[in-house]
Amino acid sequence: MPLIDQITAFVSERPLGTAIVCVAALVALVVGYFVARAVSRAAVRLFQRYVAPRPVEDVLTIVAASIATGVSAQGMWRFSSDVLGFDGPLRLLLFAFIEVAVITSAVRARRNMRENFSAGIDGVAVWALTCLTAVLSSMDARSPAEAVFRLSAPLVAAWLWERGMAIERHRITGRARIHWRLTPERMLVRIGLAEVSDRTASEVDAHRRLTRVALAAKKARALREAGASDRKMRAALARLDREMDRAVEHTGLAVDQARQEALLSQIGALYNTSALIDLSPPVPWAPEPEAGPGAAPGRGARPVSPALPVAARSSAPVDDDDDDAGEGAEVVDATPMPADPAQRAALMRAAREYWDKQIERRFVPRAADIAHETGMPLSTARECRALWKLESRAHALIEAAQSEQGGVDTGTFPAIEVPEPVLVANGSSPGH
């Protein structure tokens, strides 16, 4: 008899039982609906609380580590039955005790990382217990391939855990665990196939061409000062002219003011290399001076100004940067330089910022202007100005003003505007 006929016969023979079955089925459907809705809501809450805030790589790491841990647990299930002889409930309770210990140690290591910035002994325990369960589960393998597989599964889980801990360590502390001295990036930079900075190819090419021009100019000047033969001078000047033509063609040197300034800076640095031997940098560990500003320097006295030439000390005659003092006169500065290194550094930074701002306005300030604006002693302001006016931009402004006015550097004149960019540095001018 077909199924539908059997159902029809059962309903006609037992109507009361059919009604009870229908009511029970309806109640079961309602209860199942509410249970399914509660389970789905709980699953959504768990997902939003534990899964959604995590990055995708962390979720994939947990999933892969769970699969690898399951493979290891399956090997321990067979090991506990074949080797240890466990059976029934005892086997079910004891087969995965090492995997539970691995998970516990991993959770403790993560907590230690968040609180103490180190996995500690629990991190070592994760690797030790992982190796133990890998060896035990592979001892019951039936073939070499199965043994290799059971050895690798727990190690893969431990490696994924270690990488997750490394990412969290970097996220918390802001630094990596170790910096290798030999990396592919460093090797490519060492052999010249990679760039250290993030400059573009055009910027690198322009810098190299400007450097070639500066080096060619230095060589030609050195040959001229050494009295070289006409043949060497012609070769040096021809090379300089060739490099200059290439720089103008490929870097836009004729119209790019920033690259003109870069070229002047390189030439100024190359021409004044010998000035480095006259610098007198301060001794960082020297004691602070105890005597007053007018007292003679005693034992342990620290220089007043950092990194300035000896010839620019305050006891020297007044330079030509002030027009209100007589030539060769001595100036007694009653304003002492602060003894605190932080205050001295603040004054030096303020003076440098004022100097750069005035140079941007194409004005060469006097030492008195620097002292008035920043509050530093006049002698220190003279020392700073004597050093800073040798830089390429300030020197170019001074040379331009002198060529227009025919005077000396008094520090009281603004730069004279010229229709074309002036390429001058360290005593060389367009008229030379």
Automatic annotation (TrEMBL):
Domain of life according to the entry: Bacteria
Transmembrane segments: 16-39, 59-77, 89-107, 119-139
Keyword line: Membrane, Transmembrane, Transmembrane helix
Acidic residues bias (residue ranges): 318-327
Biased composition, class Low complexity, residue ranges: 288-307
Chain positions covered by the region annotation Disordered: 287-335
Protein name: DUF2637 domain-containing protein
Biological source species: Planomonospora corallina
